Amino acid sequence: MILTDKELFQQGSSLIAPFEQNQVTNIGYDLKTECFFLDAKTSKTEVELAPGDTVFVRTVETISLPDDMAAAVQLKNSRIRQGLSLTAPIYQPGHKTKVFFRVTNITKKIIKLNLEKGIAYLLFLPLGESVEKPYNGTFQNEETFVGMGAYQSALGDDMIDIEKKVDAVKNIEKNVYGNVLSIMGIFIGIFSLINVNLSLVAASAGMATLLTFNFATVGAIAFLIGLINAILPDGKNHKLIWCASGLAFLASIVVQFIVK
Question: Is the peptide bond before 93 cis (omega within 30 degrees of 0)?
Fold first, then answer.
């Protein structure tokens, strides 16, 4: 059984405050949004929900349910068609509280919410008799947002795990790119060495000149690989590569100006 508009006009002021007759529908009461909670401490008067985003809604109204009545929050048809999904408790007999519910964007586009357009309505459900144990739980007389409780911490843990996995994927991606660039650098270096040696041999260059160009080319290749390796997240072999580059350049200088 659900209270009809006639019954709500008669009983509404004792069940919900502030009570406005123009908010009464044929079988329910349209709720007005007071604010949106992004988390336990942050509230806004308008939000943009990206696909998959969730927000808690606090309404203007406070309900005071007698011991023989429950209440249920329902999403408006227009909001269902817009792409919102609603999660809300069944408010139990004896529950006195601001009305809270959670909405989620299940579409692939951004949905904007503000205080002007309603989101949900309330159904009042009379019972056959009063309950023996009226509600007296954690969320009794919840005027200010108590928070998301275990849901928040669980969601927070999930988000941390997701962020770690995203970082791991990014590191793998960097490693792949770095390795590909390093391999390309090695191949370029090999071809450069071959071309340099062929050119010097064809020009009948002396051994000192040959060694100088070879050491300089090896130093340049090592320097290039060192730069590429520097972008990798694991930081392995940086010192070894820089040392190899420095030694190769030093050897080219020694051969050219000292041994020669």
Answer: no
